[in-house]
Each structure stands twice: as structure tokens, then as C-alpha cells.
Amino acid sequence: MRFLRKHRCPLILLLLGLLVSAPIVVVRWATAELASPPRRDLMDYHREFLADLPAHGIRVEEFTAQDGTPCLVVSPAGSPGERGKILRNQLTERGFRLSPFGEILGTLVLLHGRKGRKEDYLGIAERFAACGLRCVIPDLPGHGDHPGKIATYGVREAMVPARVLDEAASRFGFEPKPSGLMGISMGGSVAIHAAALPDAPWSALIVVASFDSLGGIARNDARRRLGHTLGDLLADEMESLYQKKTGIGLPDIRPLDRVASVQAPTLIAHGTADSVVPFTSGKRLHDALSAGLPRKWIEIPDAGHDNVLITDFPIYAEMTSWFLNHLTECRP
Fold first, then answer.
1. HSE on the CB side for 270, CA within 13 Å?
2. How far apart are CA 105 and CA 134, in angstroms?
3. Does position 244 have pLDDT exceeding 70, yes or no?
4. pTM for the whole structure
5. 3-state secondary structure the chain
6. Edge-to-edge, what's the strand order for the sheet holding 58-64?
């Protein structure tokens, strides 16, 4: 007790200092998470997958684009793996007439989410490849092995998908069209920005669990955790720091403002239990698509943000049908 009385003022000052500095630390951490997420190394399960490609019915080739973007190219090879067999059976049960395994009908570019890397999409690519869709999978800036350090959620990455598609086609000797584009979460925002560009090459687009406004998502999350008043103060500071770090305003990252310019037939899917990006965010993206555009909205029951593609809902059959229907329409 004597110690506490003697040191009461310094302790009070220390506590006040912690209370003042804690929000600053949180804001800087949150801003760094958005602009430069911690990178994930290649995991053991990635290595195990890559070490036994025949079991998955695929061939994987690596290349680095001229701008330094590391990429994988995944093509069907041998016989379908277990994931591919399940998907082919689902499509057959729906009355879908599939081409023989190994025949390639088009190419997809797959875009990972925040904190992801290209190898995370190997299982997804296995499924698509089993149904005749070659996949090109890049690491996005600020992620995986990409030399870029900053993620801008499509504002500066919009040209990446078409660029890696063209370079992969030139390097490996295939026609770049017909082609489709798919992105999850952050990758969905990049995909929308890419598909909204003039003369975008995509014959079909799929966006899964993505947001309509990154600034809005960040502000709503701050309010949910800290209340409106403190949450808004911290969100304002985070927007200021992100602007300084990237040169881009966080409120300016709005796929909602770009999606009406998309000309490719578009499927948007979202989990009904997503607590990271609200279900309503994905619905707003769908509703903002051009009225004359072929489009589809899919609600994945009880799916959260991280398990949106691994529930019992047959989302891969839905996505593959969408790609095959629209890509084969474009075949000569």
C-alpha cells in the first residue's frame, strides 16, 4: 500500500498514457493490415499437394510475368482427382454434357483474397481443370511471393489479370480467349476493377464474398467493435494513414462504382452468415450490375467468410456451369 501511495501519480500517468496510445497502436496495426497484410509462407499442405499432382489430375507450370508477378498455370492431366470426379458427377446429374477429360475449353484467371497466395487456389483449380478449364493463378501485390508491397484492392491491380493471361498464353502456346475471371473477397474487388476496364477480355465473371466499399466495411467494423463515436474517430484516422501509405483514399476503393461498367456475364455469390463482409454488400454489387447483362445472385446458406466455398452447398457446380455456358458461347 505504501508503494502504491508513493507511486500513485506516476502510475496514473502511465495508465493514461496507455489509454491514449492504445487506439493509435490499433489504428496503425489495422491500416498496416489493409495496405500490407502479413504474408503467408508456402504451407506443408501446399507442398503435399504439389508433390502428388497426378492424384489431382492436373499439371502445374510456373512463370513470372514481366512486371514480377509470380503465376501458376494449372491444366488437366492424366485422369480426374477426387475433387474433379465429384464435380463432374454433380454436373452430369444436372444434365450437363461434359467434354472428355483433358479437353480444354477456355482459360480462367483466379484471384485470391487478402492474406492469400496463389497456392491456396490449387484445389479450386483442380475442380475447374477437371471440367476443361485451364487456370492461371497470380500472386497479387502485397501477397505471396509478389515483389510489390502494397495492396490497393483493384485500383492499381486492375491490369494484372489480363496481363498475366496474355503472357501465359504467349509463353505456353494457347489462345487467351475465351477466358473467365474469378475473385474471392479482395480478389473479387480486383476482378470487378479488371472487368470494368475498356476492352476487357473476359467472357464471364464470378465474384465471391466481396465488398461494395472497403472504407464502408472498415468503418462499420470499427463501429461494431468500439461504438459509433470512437469507431468513427478511429476510422477517420485509419483513412488518413492509408492515404499517406498508399496515395489512395480508402473511401475511393468502391467496387460498387465500377460494377455497372462490367460487360461480362456475372455471377455473384455470398454466404448468408458472413460476419466479415456483410451479406448485403454482395447483394448491392449484384443489383448495381447493368440491367441488360446476364447475371446471377447466389446465397450460400449458413456460410461465413472463410468457409464460403467449403459448405455442403454445390457452389462449384454453379460456378463451373456459369463459366462453361458463357465461355463455350464464345468458341468459334
1. 24
2. 8
3. yes
4. 0.90
5. CHHHHHCHHHHHHHHHHHHHHHHHHHHHHHHHHHHCCCCCCCCHHHHHHHHCHHHHCEEEEEEECCCCCEEEEEEECCCCCHHHHHHHHHHHHCCCCCCCCCCCCEEEEEECCCCCCHHHHHHHHHHHHHCCEEEEEECCCCCCCCCCCCCCCCCCCCCHHHHHHHHHHHHHCCCCCCEEEEEECHHHHHHHHHHCCCCCCCCEEEEECCCCCHHHHHHHHHHHHHCHHHHHHHHHHHHHHHHHHHCCCHHHCCHHHHHHHCCCCEEEEEECCCCCCCHHHHHHHHHCCCCCCCEEEEEECCCCCCCCCCCCCCHHHHHHHHHHHHHHCCCC
6. 58-64, 70-76, 133-138, 106-111, 179-184, 204-208, 266-271, 295-300
Neighbours of 201 (CB within 10 A): 20
For residue 246, pLDDT over 80 is answered with: yes
> Alpha-carbon distance 295 to 175, whole Å?
26
Give 19-40 pLDDT, tens digit per residue. 444 444 454 545 667 888 899 9
Q: Which of 50, 63, 65 is nearest to 121 (CA)?
A: 50
Q: Please compute, for residue 52, the number of CA atoms within 13 A of its CA located in the half-sphere on the CB side.
A: 11
Please give the domain boundaries of the chain with CATH numbers for all domains: 35-213+253-328 (3.40.50.1820)
